[in-house]
Amino acid sequence: MNLRQLRYVVATADHGTMTSAAQALFVAQPALSRAVRELERELGVELFARSGRGVVLTPVGEQVVRQARVALKAVEAIEGLSAAHAGGRGSELRIATTPTLEPELTGRLLPRFAREQPAVRVRVVRCAGREEVAGAVRTGRADLAMTDLPVPGDLAAHPFEQREVVLISPPHLKLRDPLPPDALNGLRLVLPARGGSRRAELDAVLARLGVTPVPALESDDRAAWTGWVRAGAGSVLWYRNQLDDVDGLVVRSFMPPIIRRLGLVHAHRPLGQAARDFLAFAKETRVREHG
């Protein structure tokens, strides 16, 4: 038995389905289901029974959840005491991220945080991809990480931002709005250069959609993308409001929407005061910016 299993059981009880519980915790649903089943096997009891499309607690499940809430509350109190004793202002904060998300930290969040917490020394731990980011927080090489959600179940996730992927096209291009993802098949696109992190990020989106566009131009000069679109070279697949000078171009959403979810994550262990302060700061920033 471990704390992760207890958190998953409590979340499932609160949300009524394992899918909703996984979404609330920003973890993959199969990982949550597997952890709950492992706990049931370990205890030798059935915690949930199916009810329609959801699940309900069995009588013994109700007892387990009641005790799990007590245990989790006690752990949170202990973590608070530990963090207050071990942390403190003036400490170092290490945040892991990927090259595509590093500008989000260094250009947007960290300057504001530095003004509020000038005594905290922040170091960015650069990682090649999501797996390395997860490894950095698991091994303690980083205190926090900014990465895409969901994350594996052994990590705690705090959602920070959602970004919508849109298609930016010249006005003469006749396409549906909103656009089905399969309309990208054979469509001429202005793409980031091969071998870079932006291209890898976009290729992952295309692979997930199962579509194959036609590369029209390949360049990492984002400032030039909309100019090429305006000249009719092709369309751009990127994030809404992340490109300048789109006046006169057509910005289309997809149906269903293509959403990239970003969050701050950490391992399930006591956090130092600097990390706790940064999580609180990021949450406040999200509320101020998005309401």
TrEMBL record:
The keyword Transcription applies. Residues 1-58 form the HTH lysR-type domain. It comes from the Bacteria. Keywords: DNA-binding, Transcription, Transcription regulation. GO terms for cellular component: cytosol. CDD domains: PBP2_LTTR_substrate. GO terms for molecular function: DNA binding; DNA-binding transcription factor activity. PROSITE patterns: HTH_LYSR. PANTHER family: HTH-TYPE TRANSCRIPTIONAL REGULATOR YBHD (PTHR30419). Belongs to the LysR transcriptional regulatory family. This is LysR family transcriptional regulator. The lineage of its organism: Bacteria, Bacillati, Actinomycetota, Actinomycetes, Streptosporangiales.
